[in-house]
Amino acid sequence: MKLTLPPRVSPQQFDTALQAMARVVGKDWVMASDADRDAYADVYAPGPAEQWPASAAVAPASVEEIRAIVRLANEHKTPLWPVARGKNLGYGTSAPRMAGTIVLDLGRMDRILELDPRLAYCVVEPGVGFFDLYEHIQREKAPLWISVPGNAWGSVLGNALEHGIGYTPYGLHARNLCGIEAVLPDGDVMRTGLGGMDNNPAWHVFPMGYGPTWDLAFSQSNLGIVTKAGLWLQPAPAASLELVFDIPEAEDIGWVVDTITPLKISGLIEQNVFVPSWLGKMVLKGQRKDFWDKPSAIPDWRIKELLKQYKLGYWQVALRLYGEESVIKAKAEIVKAAMARNLKDPPQENWWREGDPINAFEITMGVPSAVPLQMSDWIGGRGAHMGFSPVVPATGEHVLGQMRRSRKIIADFDIDFYASFTINGRFANNVNMLMFDRDDPGQIDTMRKLFSTLIGETAKAGYGEYRTHLGWMDSVMDTYGFNDHALRRFNEKVKDALDPNGILAPGKQGVWPSAYRDSAKEGRA
Ligand code: ADP
């Protein structure tokens, strides 16, 4: 990818900045060739990756190096886009929102600084991946579980900071963060909560502190570069038991949610319950062309045939219970009875089953996996996906409304409907997976229009996305319109106060510093 400079920076100024940065990190850790820029491009870009071009990448190895880089960025007005491992697939991977931003690659900072088996937490740097932490815990024989996202090749902190979701009792990953160290946009370094004292041993166990609580102000944010954080872990349970329910019809999602939500809120079910539609299972069985060889959406009659042939429900609830054996057995009876009460027809034999003891995924047991990545092959060619991800209250009424609306819109665009609801307690995260071939401009054009329509129509109905791809960060922020966009105005006030030169992640989540507010128009999908 050719060089795109940051706004108002000349080639000479840019070279001077990179040379100064090379003196901090060593010249091998400043990457600015065309091939380097390709390596930091969005591998799942909906359209040409050149829409969100990084100018270079810099990889520091310590907090002090980060501080020095941040000071240089202020001096030379070269903005930085921090990434942990840069695997934020479907949302931009490591590409920046604003053209010409320098990627600040934190992958070299990959130490696990603490692992406390008694109080069940760890302290990690941003480069620590899910596989790294998992293996470390195994090596230490610590009786702890981590919570992993569907595809676990990213970092523990990057995922938590982006509001990632997992399918264990600790599945709301941002909530596990406790005590953060961050380099601020002016190069200062601060610690949140009890970390405001030197060496307070309760820093990573008390989630508040004294005064306002700032931990989550660094999530989905451009106010600081997180250099380490505490993360709570789940004590390994004595046993666990998986119940799998195949749910026949699309409309059944309403009663499924009404059945599971109260059990989840009361604590009988502890995990975040993942309910994918049938296509979530099919994508692991082959390629789309093996099942339907036309470009048009798979019609309902063919879906019925496939469900029958592969013994799938329209939805699958795979629910895991954790704890002492006697307790989870008793819980399982309560869950089964609640589900049976709501099935229209009396339960047939095999309407539920216990999960395989050796389940290939084990994602509900905190074992990292990259198997779900296989989904990319479904469509053929250079497969990629985006997720349209609104949040709704976890009631049948809201979930059904959301499902019907997005299903209709997606059908109107003649695209396959592949949805999941994750029941987290009082709310459900709905992800509508949209798959496309990166080399098919027609498909990409349809996807982009579809995505924008989904955002607009869903917002009209009152709901918003909780996470989105670079190209729609502004559109989604636009939907948060209460009181003349008071939320955006507040974000901008804070941003300008902390980052007067606007050097940190301009445009992230639709929050632009005054220095680059005019850039908000560019790079919108
Ligand atoms: P992963 O490591 O899981 O692949 P990324 O590195 O792609 O995740 O991070 C996702 C997003 O989270 C980044 O684009 C950035 O906005 C934010 N992020 C990641 N790490 C940090 C960090 N240490 N400090 C601040 N923001 C971060």
Helical proportion? 25-40%
> What is CATH's topology name of the largest domain?
Vanillyl-alcohol Oxidase, Chain A, domain 3
What does the radius of gyration come to? 23 Å
- Bin the strand percentage: 15-25%
Global geometry: globular
Tally of discrete structural domains: 4
Mean pLDDT across all amino acids: 95
Bound molecules: adenosine-5'-diphosphate
- Please report the number of helical segments: 14
Name the structural class: alpha+beta
Give descriptors for this structure.
525 residues; alpha+beta; Uridine Diphospho-n-acetylenolpyruvylglucosamine Reductase, domain 2; Uridine Diphospho-n-acetylenolpyruvylglucosamine Reductase, domain 3; Vanillyl-alcohol Oxidase, Chain A, domain 3; five-stranded antiparallel beta sheet; 31% helix; 18% strand; binds adenosine-5'-diphosphate
Report what the structure shows.
There is one protein chain. This protein has 525 residues and is α+β, with helices and mostly antiparallel strands. It folds into four domains: 11-105, 2-Layer Sandwich (Uridine Diphospho-n-acetylenolpyruvylglucosamine Reductase, domain 2), CATH 3.30.43; 112-235, 2-Layer Sandwich (Uridine Diphospho-n-acetylenolpyruvylglucosamine Reductase, domain 3), CATH 3.30.465.10; 239-467, FAD-linked oxidases, C-terminal domain (Vanillyl-alcohol Oxidase, Chain A, domain 3), CATH 3.40.462.10; 473-519, Orthogonal Bundle (Vanillyl-alcohol Oxidase, Chain A, domain 4), CATH 1.10.45.10. It has helices spanning 11-25, 34-39, 63-76, 130-140, 156-161, 253-266, 279-282, 288-291, 300-309, 325-342, 396-412, 441-460, 473-479, 482-498; strands at 30-31, 56-58, 80-83, 102-105, 112-116, 121-124, 144-145, 177-183, 189-191, 225-232, 234-235, 239-247, 273-276, 315-323, 352-354, 383-388, 391-393, 419-423, 427-437. The strands form five sheets. The chain has a five-stranded antiparallel beta sheet. Strand 8 (177-183) and strand 9 form a beta hairpin. Helix 1 (11-25) packs antiparallel against helix 3 and helix 11 (396-412) runs antiparallel to helix 12. 49% of the residues are buried. The structure holds adenosine-5'-diphosphate. Adenosine-5'-diphosphate (ADP) is lined by residues 82-88, 94, 106, 126, 154-155, 157-159, 161-162, 225-226, 505, 508.
